[in-house]
Amino acid sequence: MSRVLTNDGSMNMHPGPMYYNGVYHLFFQYNPFGPLFSNQIYWAHSVSHDLINWTPLDLAIAPTEPFDINSCWSGSATILPGNKPVILYTGINSDNQQVQNLAIPKNLSDPYLREWVKYTGNPVVKLPDGIQPDDFRDPTTAWLTDDGKWRIIVGSQKDKTGIAFLYQSEDFINWTKYDSPLLKVEGTGIWECPDFFPVWVDSMNGVDTSVLGPKVRHVLKVGLFDYARDYYMIGNYSPAKENYVPQSEFTLGTLRYDYGKYYASKSFFDPVKNRRILMAWVNESDSEADDIAKGWSGLHSFPRSLWLDQNQKQLIQWPIEEIELLHENEVSFEDKKLEAGSTQEIEGITASQADVKISFKLTNLEEAEELDHSVVDPQLICSAKDASTKGKFGPFGLLALASSDLTEQTAIFFRIYKSSERYVVLMCSDQSRSSTRNGLDKTTYGAFVDIDPKQEEISLRTLVDHSIVESFGGGGKTCITSRVYPTFAIGDDAHLFAFNNGTESVVISKLSAWSVKKARINIEETISCTS
Ligand code: FRU
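Above: inputs. Below: predicted complex with beta-D-fructofuranose.
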C-alpha cells in the first residue's frame, strides 16, 4: 500500500511532515547502519506528490556537530512567512544532553529541499535547569500569535510529571521559556512528540496551525513513553493568558488516536486539500532477531485526515481519499443476513492488500447482554472475550489475513451491551490467532465506540497490508492498528471473511471491498536538479 518503509534501517516517528510548493515531505528517524535503534540516529527524507507514492532522498540531517553529535532526534517543520520552511529538532550533544536545534534548507529553489544547513549558533534552546539531560525533546511545529511571537512546546518530565514546556520567540533563534508550562500531568512520565493544533468546531476541514479564535478548539497530543501510546486532549487555548484548559481531566483511560500499535504521530496542515493529516510510526510485533533477519523494522501508518466530531467530545480519523488511486476490483453487496455462528467469505479481491468497508444493522437490541461493570478497561474485556467467545450481539465483524481453514486470522469485531438505559459498543482487534508462529506480541486491543446502535448502523473500515491491519470503527470514532505475521495466510493464500459468532443474527447492510495496488515506495529514482 503506501508506506515509507526503509530497506535497510530502522525507522521511528515523523519529525516533520510538511507540504511545500507542491511537494509533501516526510522526515523520519532513521538508523542508516542497521535495523535496530542506535545512538546514531539521522533524519531520513522522502517526498511525494500524492501522499501515496514516495521517493527517498538523501538523509536530511546527520549527527555531525557538538550540538547533535550523539543523534538527531525528533522535531518538526514550520513554514515561516514568505514561504520559508525551517526545522527544529532535538540534538543529543557531546555532553549527552538533549537540546533543540535549528536547520534551514540550503537552496529554496530546489523543489525537493534536499540539503539542510544547521544554524551555527545551535542550540537555540538549552536544557532547562532542574531537568534531566535525557528528558527534554521533540519540539512542535511553531504557531504565531497576535503579539507577533512564535510559540513552541517541548516534551519533558520532572519526577514522573509529564510536562509540555512552552517557549516564545520573535526571530526563531532566541527562545524564552515561560515559567508555567502549557500543561503538566503528574504520574504520566516523559511526554514525547507533543503536537498542538487547532480544529474547527463546525467543519471537517483542517485548520492551519496558527489560527486562533472562538471557532476553534485546540488539540494537545502527547506520547506517553512508558506506555508507547499517543493520548490527546481537546481544550481551549488562550494565548493572552498563555494557558490551555482541556475539556476533561487527563487519565490513562481517556482519548487516544488509536487503541492499538500507533505511536509518535505527528499532524500537519495540508493547504492543497484544506485538511489536517496525521501519520504515525507503527513498530514491529516480532523480535529484534526477526528485525535483523529481515533487515528493517518499523513502518508508517496510512495517512489519515482528522477533525473534531460534531459533538466536540473527540476527534474523527479517516484514511485520506488518495487511497482510491490504488483501488481496483471492487466487490460489493447489500442486505445480507449473517446468521448466528456463520462466516461469509469476501471473494474477488486480494485479501492481503485490501480496503474493506462493512456496516451492520441490528434488530431486537433489547436482547443484548448486560455490561459487566466490574471490568472497566475495554482492552481487558476484549482479551477476556476473544473472537471465539460467543456472546449475543457479537462478536461480529471481519476476519482479515485468514487462512482458508481459519487457523490463522486477525479478528476485528464488535460486541453490543446494554448498560442501564443505553447501549455500549465495544470494538476489538484480536491478534491471538494471527499467526501460528510463537514469540510474537499478540496482544488483543479494544476500545468503546461512541455510537448509539439503536439509531445508527455499526460500521467498520479495515485496511489490510500484509503485516499491518488498520481499522476504523463508527466512521473513524475508534481506530485500532495491529501488526501481524501470518505464515499461511499470505499472498494469494490470504482470505477475508465477515463473521458472526454471536447467538443473534446480524445484517450486513452494505459491504464494499477493493484490492489495493502496490504503491511506489523506496524506489530510488533520479530527481532532476534545478540548480
Ligand atoms: C519517540 C522518540 C522521540 C525521540 C525519538 C528518537 O519514539 O523516542 O521522543 O525524539 O523517538 O528516535
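The chain is about 5% helix and 45% strand.
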